[in-house]
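chain below, 357 aa
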Amino acid sequence: MYSTSSAITVPSVMRAVTIENGKGPSSALRIGQVPTPTLSAEDTTPHVLVKVRAFGLNRMDLMQREGQYPIPPGASPIMGVEFSGEVAALPQHGPPNLNLGDAVFGLAHGGAYAEYIRVPASMIWKKDAVMSWEQAAAVPEAYITALQALHTLSNLNKGEDVLIHAGASGVGLAAIQLAKYLGARNVYVTAGTTEKIARCKQLGATDGFNYKTQDWAAELKRVTEGKGVDVIMDFIGAAYFNNNLASLRLDGRMTMQAFLGGIKLPEGVNIAPMLTRRLRIEGSTLRSRTVEYQAQQAHAFERLGCIDALLRGVRGDTSHNALQIILHKVWDWHDIKEAHDYMAANQNTGKMVAMIS
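prediction:
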């Protein structure tokens, strides 16, 4: 064991969620013993060690468990990219704004399904006492993914209209609110149930379309009087590509976060609108980005006042100047198999978080 101060002692071995044989179904998940990550004087950017209190679950975790999601070079093989907890160790020199024991939350390239995580100091924020551990762990991946897509890549302008697919997902619900916060005029969503659409509307969506029972593209065309939208945030990929192109206005922008509907375009896809309407299509992976890029997104989130907006939301403000943290369910990490199965069945509306016990 090594001691970082007279008050904080970090063990050399910690508990973490592991995958039997390296990959497999949810039944392969175990809580086992692994070496605790350590800080190094050779780090090119300041890192801190955080004692994890809670971590967020994301669909990429399911894919990683099954061996279908490439881990970024140098990242921990342990699942999990968002967390909340307390600073347990600091490098000898800096960062000056953090102290041992500070409550924080943030992003990581991996390693959050564990008692301790080593993370760049530039990718965390201090946690206000008004925000719970589970609320804080639900913020980073959803909101920074939404920020990257809407603000950094799509350059969403005030008065523009937006379409968000998978609107009731954790990222989708964050994106609805962030779009309104950034000044969008109308925000449309697709979702799989009337209940999910209703939840999206409660959080600011103008209208929603049930992709299981409606032709969402026809409905969007109807409500926009044939004009379509300026920005689309897509998670579906090939299955929606043609209708997405047809739904974008002149100089429209679309970011693609995932390929839940496949990666191979069907025959007959009409790409002419890309030229005639000057459309911009861009992929927007987050986890594979550099520490510097993710830190820029974290700083932009704070600079735009989003941290303060989240705190207003936690305190009960429901206006468009506040951002809500939508927790669907909080699990004990000993029930991680059940949590993965629940997410795989698309039962959640909003974020799922696990608490370490």
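Confidence is low (pLDDT under 50) at residues 1-7. The longest strand covers residues 47-57.
thats it, cya
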